[in-house]
Amino acid sequence: MNIKTLNGPSYEIENNYQLKGYKIIAGTDEAGRGPIAGPVVAAAVILDKKNIPDGINDSKKLSEKNRKKLFYEIKKYADVGVGVGDVEKIDNINILQSSLWAMKQAVMHLKEKPDLVLVDGNKDINPQYNSVPIIKGDGVSLSIAASSIIAKVIRDELMVKFSYIFKEYMFEVNKGYPTPKHLLILKKIGPSSIHRLTFKPVIISKANLKN
């Protein structure tokens, strides 16, 4: 059981709110705000305080191998919900609103309704839930960190699947992020149907192809 990790997230925030009467506490986070292609994926996690896997941390600070290992351990012991905001939604309502929408969906897909939701970032997900935004929450809350791992692994796997359909873009490598090689490919052949058409690099690539 990992209630507190050295220089990493702990269960302290959750404990404090439980002492205030919030019995069931979920954390939620997203993966995929920065890419120029692919969906944004959010996860919500209610940890079992007696079975918290060791090593949970902000997904960005973990190796791919450790993320996958923790992914299965979290799924085994925790209540997990997932929400996905596709490219059409991102282009229609913007990436921030799509991220918040996906987090709300993730919370809705939990088996238990949480008394409180700890949200990574500085925005509430929805008035219908008691939620507390925590900036850089994946670095301080184990529940949020766990949700960051779930969201990251699922999104990465989705992008690998997309790479079989859109082979030219090397999504299995860049996961939709605007790496130099990805931008070069985009410049040469233009966007795919899963590129975010409202994102600047994609807009520029389309304009260049017309000229």
Topology:
Layout: H1 12-19, E1 25-31, E2 40-46, H2 64-77, E3 79-85, H3 87-93, H4 95-108, E4 116-120, E5 131-134, H5 142-165, H6 171-174, H7 180-189, H8 200-210
Parallel strand pairs: 1-4, 4-5
Antiparallel strand pairs: 1-2, 2-3
Index terms:
211 residues; Nucleotidyltransferase, domain 5; 5-stranded mixed β-sheet; 5 strands; 44% helix; disordered N terminus
Q: What would you note in describing this structure?
A:
The protein contains eight helices and five strands, in the order H-E-E-H-E-H-H-E-E-H-H-H-H. It is 44% helix and 14% strand. With 211 residues, it is of the alpha/beta class. It is elongated. The termini are far apart. The protein has a five-stranded mixed beta sheet. Mean pLDDT is 95; it is low at 1-5. It has two domains: 12-163, 2-Layer Sandwich (Nucleotidyltransferase, domain 5); 167-210, no CATH class.
Task: Briefly characterize the structure.
The chain has 211 residues and is an alpha/beta fold.
Strand-pairing-aware structural class? alpha/beta
The CATH architecture designation of the largest domain is 2-Layer Sandwich
The end-to-end span amounts to 59 Å
Taken in chain order, the helices and strands follow as: HEEHEHHEEHHHH
What fraction strand?
A: 5-15%
Whole-number average pLDDT? 95
The general outline is elongated
The CATH homologous superfamily of the largest domain is named: Ribonuclease H-like superfamily/Ribonuclease H
Number of beta-strand segments: 5
Major sheet: order of its strands? 3-2-1-4-5
Largest sheet: 5 strands, mixed
The third-level CATH topology of the largest domain is Nucleotidyltransferase, domain 5
Can you tell me the residue ranges where pLDDT is under 50 for at least 5 consecutive residues?
Answer: 1-5
